[in-house]
Amino acid sequence: MDSLIWATLVSLAPYLLSLVAVFLFYGQISYLKKKGPIPGPSLVLPFIGNAVSLVRDPTRFWDAQSDLARSSHLGVSANYIMGKFIVFIRSTEISHRVFANVRPDAFHLIGHPFGKKLFGEHNLIYMFGQDHKDLRRRIAPNFTPKALSTYTSIQQNIVKKHLMRWLREAEERPGKPIALRFLCRDINLETSQTVFVGPYLSAEAKEKFNFDYNLFNVGLMKLPIDLPGFAFRDARLGVERLVKTLGGCAEESKKMMRGGHEPTCLIDFWMQDAVMEEADEGVAPRPYPTSVEIGGHLFDFLFAAQDASTSSLLWAVALLDAHPEVLAKVRSEVSRVWSPESDAPITTELLREMKYTEAVAREVLRIRAPATLVPHIAGEDFPLTETYTVPKGTIVFPSVYESSFQGFVEPDRFHPDRFLDEKHDDRVYKKNFLVFGAGAHQCVGQRYAMNHLVLFIAMFTSLIDFKRHRTDGCDDIVYVPTICPKDDCKVFLSKRCTQNPSALS
């Protein structure tokens, strides 16, 4: 019996090998046909493509794509990852063309190459047309001056608490540098949770929340294998639990707002508006998002605020240390409007007076854009240039990072004054500053993000003396998933002011 099976397999082997050869040949021809005239690897592995290279060293992978795009007058390059044909976009003009054509018959924002499976269906980034406009209109009350003022107070207290913790850790480890990446992540995670859902997340729920969010972060950087035991599956299930938790917070907030309570966090401002809309008997409102849908949108906010802000805080520290003349100007400006030893909080009005510090924050975001790529998928064939049409199903990657180094005078130089001087670099080359995106899906919370970064810079530089622990390659870029210094930004810390700011204790 065994010999018969073996003989059958031997006789079928040539046909099986032929089928494999045809499969490989078809995959290669399909890739080359989609690639057309744009630069990219000539040969790719079936299905997997160059996914291993991407996961192993994202920085090198995207640098190679950038070099290929730079070699072409089109400003784009091609590759193949996990069964997906991809196009990297270095050209700012083409990036704007993608951002301006987010609609069902053109490009769909996906946030991650396999984002819809990971983030879930109920997410702001996947919406189009009137539904998207209605949701953004309903989100708008979350970012009014009154709301931002409420958030600033929360942010300040949390930032101060963590900075004091950093100093205590530094005192316990004299002469040893402290890596800031996870410390900054903790600041942002607590800030995001407290600003977004405030009192509706218990201490126990926060622990579970942090655990699930870490699963999500790890899964973002792994191969998209949705099977038990793989990080991607753990991340997807973690997101489902996070969305459910945030949806429950929305329900609790709505009860409080119906009771006439004043908003204390973002979900309160949102639900207060929802209650007012429900009470408007003269208008037949469009269906309001369910609690689960709101939970999905809150998770979108959390992801945008958490990882991007962690990257920005780290690069702010690294760049200020590397440019002591900029640091001195920041400290001088902040000291004119706020003293860490005073009883005065930093209000949103005071933040507006810190014009140079805000320019520094903008330059940090320009030269080290946290989310370097904004992936979209082509819903239909689309003419990307006059000579190249991107095929349906292609994932395109407009590079926000590359755009930041185009147009600006001396783009490789860290020069905050470009956002202040009479040349108005920021206005002339506004189209190249794509950190917050462009078009219909431009970041709705960008003012909140800027306030957070300016506040951190003002408080960190006023409360703490710091010096980078410099080693070879410490400032090289790594993806985790947003970009940060290779050494996790190791610094020596010591107390700067003579006493703690009592108003924030």
From TrEMBL:
Its main location: membrane. One of its GO terms (biological process) is sterol metabolic process. GO terms for molecular function: C-22 sterol desaturase (NADPH) activity; heme binding; iron ion binding; monooxygenase activity. It catalyses: 5-dehydroepisterol + NADPH + O2 + H(+) = ergosta-5,7,22,24(28)-tetraen-3beta-ol + NADP(+) + 2 H2O. Pfam families: p450. It is found in: Membrane. The chain crosses the membrane at residues 6-26. Its EC number is 1.14.19.41. It is a single-pass membrane protein. It comes from the Eukaryota. Keywords: Heme, Iron, Membrane, Metal-binding, Monooxygenase, Oxidoreductase, Transmembrane, Transmembrane helix. SUPFAM superfamilies: Cytochrome P450. The keyword Flavoprotein does not apply. It is an enzyme of class 1 (oxidoreductase). Heme binds at residue 443. Its cofactor is heme. GO terms for cellular component: membrane. Belongs to the cytochrome P450 family. This is sterol 22-desaturase. It comes from Actinidia rufa.
